[in-house]
């Protein structure tokens, strides 16, 4: 059975200012999302599932899904603040959805095989999808053997300002032991540093960081529901608390229920963190097309 790719796209409408303006960065108007789908198919994923907001379903089907028709099976599920497990309560004034792992939980009725998770608006690179697909194929039929694609921090910087990254700590066998969120990561005088309390601390260029590219087996949905129930019991009355993937993964590791292998990738991540990043992203994609990594027209 081929693995599934689960794409977190519920934030797209607000970030892109509406799907009609979904940013065309490739030579034929391709969005970053299109490159992820193309790379996933090439790596051996068999199905794509998107989690979106219900209010832009019609636009999403017309603008995005139509181009994949006949090329790959696509499914859609929806994230909204009111999608909570039976018997759970939350602050009725809350309008913001519950974060990345809540988004993952929305796919539980559609995904029954090993699956990868990515953001819709990050460019991950073909090698990353290949190492993720290969790992997911190797753990089919097992439980609790998860993975995370760890990008070398030097391949994730912006030329237009500092970035925040989850810096990964792994044991000698390459299994994740911790993800430490570091803000203000940038290159200064030839050295990559993160700044905390006005103190610069160097980071090795190959230090693995999380770009929210994960691999799971289907029982992760059950753990997600259990974790979300506990989260709501503790924080359901708060207006802005979020239920994040790294938090649950860490809880499962600490409880001995799962391991998470950090997979190295040579891919260069890029995305539009700052509006000034856009011309460079267009240039990078055009260069990859020129090198033959991608065809000029993807679909």
Question: Could you write a compact summary of the structure shown?
Answer:
The chain is of the alpha/beta class. 27% of the residues lie in helices and 26% in strands. The protein contains 8 helices and 11 strands.
Question: How would you characterize this protein structure?
Answer:
With 299 residues, this protein is of the alpha/beta class. It has a single domain, classed as Alpha-Beta Complex (Spore Coat Polysaccharide Biosynthesis Protein SpsA, Chain A). It has helices at residues 12-16, 32-43, 57-63, 100-105, 126-138, 220-235, 245-254, 278-290, and strands spanning 4-8, 47-52, 73-78, 115-119, 145-152, 163-170, 176-188, 191-196, 199-202, 208-216, 259-265. Strand 2 (47-52), helix 3 (57-63) and strand 3 form a beta-alpha-beta unit.
Name some characteristics of this structure:
alpha/beta; eleven-stranded mixed sheet; Spore Coat Polysaccharide Biosynthesis Protein SpsA, Chain A; 299 residues
Layout of helices and strands:
Elements: E1 4-8, H1 12-16, H2 32-43, E2 47-52, H3 57-63, E3 73-78, H4 100-105, E4 115-119, H5 126-138, E5 145-152, E6 163-170, E7 176-188, E8 191-196, E9 199-202, E10 208-216, H6 220-235, H7 245-254, E11 259-265, H8 278-290
Parallel strand pairs: 1-2, 1-4, 2-3, 5-11
Antiparallel strand pairs: 4-10, 5-10, 6-7, 6-10, 7-8, 8-9
Helix pairs in contact: 2-5
**CATH class call:** Alpha Beta
Largest sheet entry: 11 strands, mixed
**How many beta-strand runs?**
11
What is the count of structural domains? 1
Helix content: 25-40%
Uncertain regions spanning at least 5 consecutive residues: none
Overall, the morphology is globular
Q: Tell me the structural class.
A: alpha/beta
Strand content: 25-35%
Report Rg.
Answer: 19 Å
CATH superfamily: Spore Coat Polysaccharide Biosynthesis Protein SpsA, Chain A
Oligomer: single chain
Helical segment count: 8
**CATH fold group:** Spore Coat Polysaccharide Biosynthesis Protein SpsA, Chain A
One letter per element, helices H and strands E, the order comes to EHHEHEHEHEEEEEEHHEH
Distance between the termini: 24 Å
